[in-house]
Amino acid sequence: MGREREVQKQPISYTVEQLISVNPYNPDILPDLENYVNEQVSSQTYSLDANLCLLRLYQFEPERMSIQIVARILVKALMAMPAPDFSLCLFLIPERVQMEEQFKTLIVLSHYLETARFRQFWDEASKNRSIVEVVPGFEQAIQAYAIHVLSLTYQKVPRSVLAEAINIEGLSLDKFLEHQIANAGWVIEKGHGRGQLITLPRNEFNQPELKKSTADSIPLEHVTRIFPILS
Amino acid sequence: MAASFDYEEPASYEDVGVGQRQQADLGYDPNFVPDSVKTFVGHLYRHIREKNVYEIHQMYEGSFQKLSDRMFKESPWPSVDAVAPYVDHDHVFCLLYREMWFRHLYARLSPTPKQRIDSWDNYCSLFQVVLHGVVNMQLPNQWLWDMVDEFVYQFQSFCQYRAKMKNKTEQEIELLRQYDQAWNVYGVLNFLQALVEKSTIIQILEQEKEGLEQFTATDGYDYNGGSNVLKVLGYFSMVGLLRVHCLLGDYHTGLKCLLPIDISQSGGVYTSVIGSHITTIYHYGFANLMLRRYVEAIREFSKILIYIFKTKQYHQKSPQYEQILKKNEQMYALLAICLSLCPQGKLVAEDVNTQLKEKYGEKMLRMQRYDDEAYALYDELFSYACPKFITPSAPVYEQPLVNYNQDAYRLQLKLFLYEVKQQQLLSGVRTFLKLYSTIPIGKLATYMEVDEPTVRSILLTYKHKTHAVDSDGKIASNADVDFYIDDDMIHVVESKSTKRYGDYFMRHILKLEEIINEMDRVKMD
User: Fold this and answer.
1) How far apart (Å, rounded) are the C-alpha atoms in residues A215 and B477?
2) Residue B499 — very low, low, confident or very high, per pLDDT cuts 50/70/90?
3) What is the 3-class SS of B443-486, one letter each residue?
4) φ, ψ for residue A195 (rounded to 5)?
5) Burial environment of residue B367 by CB neighbours within 10 A (0 to 12, 13 to 18, 19 or more)
6) Does A27 touch chain B (CB under 8 A)?
7) Dihedral of the CA atoms B241, B246, B252, B255 (nearest 10)?
8) Cα–Cα distance for residue pair B99/B103, rounded to 1 Å
9) Would you report the helix, strand and coil content of chain B in percent, each value rounded to 5?
10) CA spacing 20 to 30 A to B433: which of A64, A83, A101, B310?
């Protein structure tokens, strides 16, 4: 994957987040933002604002663009699903750059995730380990997204559907389920005939009855507007 | 296809040289100051010195337009040097005059490359004076809005002009190289940002919530002898930043810049000028559309469209009238797109719905079909209604000169259509779900003529695409029809439109109070 830059441990007077909020339109902070992308990769953290700020600077001065950094930003953005971060980044990346092979792959991966075709996604991802595996936590992040969509949709999901979505099978899946039962309130029951059925925790999206209670509530700040009248 | 939809700037704006020729043909003498102009600048200058906002507004909105129509239809106003003697050579007034001078030139003639650069210089001087706090005048909101609006417009126009490299003369290219700082994107953004910061408008709006400061209540004016210029320019600059970021395709950051303005509250200062009101909501709605927050976009488009529908007639004489009508039409097109992707018609005000049906009813039916013709319609409406996207970087002069003024637009269009394609099967699912209260997955698969895993994917996609996640991770449902799956069975949940009694009563309590206050104020003779 080309050069791997060491994250330099220099005493910095400002954090990158501060730099952005003080002066977001400053070409001089570009190297700091690039280092910050690498730092996000190694420390498994994420800052959409910082990354958009960097893509913006690349947009202003295309000759300073680093393809490798852009690739990392995009992988990080995929990991932020279900948030629309990946599109937000693409909106700022010139079309001719998007034609690069590794970006085409990432766009295909994003497409599979956006259309919930997890089988194809995991197949494609396994063919492109060199792109995605440089970013630690990639698999777990996608699994978390898969579980998010499943939880919006299913009250009870067949084991096989879950297995395909998170790409875990057999004993590993048993272990994973055990963990979820202990920590996330999942319940396993016998399905009729074939395989297990997993009950996912209820929320207002897989159990729409839960939503009604909030539908007609009034935010406090709206009520405060009539306080002067009531007093 | 897109090009036919008015994406190009009107030819007259860009046709370099025509303006000059016209000016010469008509014998324009920049040093000749007609008596009516002498009177005009003299009075305007006096009213500004006396902080007579009402009179300033009358002259700015009324007299300036009338004189422009009568005497400067096809030529620029007299040069600033020629009018300076009639206004004590006042530095700030001359900057303001020149700003109007360029604005008039851009609107009625076509700026030469040098004039574009000079106008940039004038904005730099003007904003620097404002930022250094030397300005102590009180100007109408309309005027202050027009400055920010025009500043962003001229930036956009410059980017479009610069990106058309193919037919540039050597002189033009030399000029662009020489003045590479003119309309530089960093400069533009930093001016807007500096105005926001120096004005401390964000803190002012914060403090206002706690009752420590008045801004909205006085429409930004200062009744204690202070100046409103920096404060209000700072305020409108937040809208300017939203717009610039939308032009760059950075919707997330754009919305973030607008955050200090609570657009769900009625009566914000941005609504005090119709142009600002429309620009704010147009870009706010567009950004939300691109972020897939359709319900938010629909709600705000509906609100502003009903507002324009009801107040249109009062703006007929305004110089902005045509612009109002154009943005009105564009927002109907955007609303048609939103509703095709997210059929929540019940969020739309009745009059707006009627208008929408008239304008786009038939197209919207065809957009539901997701065939090639439907894509063509999405393309058409998007191209007609989207902002004029820009490429902010300077051309590479060493390479063969090509036009790149359409690049940014093409990219945004392509990504938008990509999104539409990802949602192509959702309207089919929607149709079936509406017919059942429960339906087995296998049966739905048969109806949709796909296999079971595919239906499961489509259903997951439906959930994902109809549940927007905002920047702090909160999930908001945009779904008109909702469902959940229990093993192999889909349970459809009828979406009842819950009447919001709470809001309704709140509004009327406030209204009643207002009326009672009004009546108290009326003294019987």
Assistant:
1) 12
2) low
3) HHHHHHCCCHHHHHHHHHHHHHHHEEECCCCCEEECCCCEEEEE
4) 70, 175
5) buried
6) yes
7) 50
8) 6
9) 65, 5, 30
10) A83
Closest CA to A52 of A87, A28, A97: A87
Residue of B nearest to A93 (CA): B411
ipTM of the complex: 0.85
Residues of B in contact with A211 (CB under 8 A): 477
| Residue A75, C-beta contacts closer than 8 angstroms, at least 6 positions apart | A106, A131, A132, A134, A135, A138
Of A91, A149, A153, the CB nearest to B412: A91
Closest by Cβ to B252, choosing from A88, A158, A161: A88
Cα B26 to chain centroid, rounded: 36
| pLDDT single digits (tens) B176-208 | 889 889 999 999 999 999 999 998 899 888 888
C-beta atoms of B510 and A191 within 8 A: no
Whether B477 sits inside 8 A of A205 (CB atoms) is yes
**Phi/psi of residue B482, each to 5°?**
-120, 165
In angstroms, the separation between the Cα of residue A226 and the nearest Cα of chain B is 7
Residue A142 carries which side chain, given as an amino acid letter?
I
Given a contact cutoff of 8 angstroms between Cβ atoms, the answer to whether A181 and A188 are in contact is: yes
Cβ count near A184 (within 10 Å): 11
- A199, A43, A103: which is closest to B485 by C-alpha? A199
| A-B contacts at Cβ under 8 angstroms | 146
Nearest to B76 by CA among B104, B42, B114: B104
- Of the CA atoms within 13 Å of residue B294, those in its CB half-sphere come to 23
pTM for this prediction: 0.87
Is the pLDDT assigned to residue A88 strictly greater than 90? yes
Per-residue pLDDT reduced to its tens digit, A107-135: 999 999 999 999 999 999 999 888 888 89
Residue from the list B458, B463, B488 with its beta carbon closest to the beta carbon of A149: B463
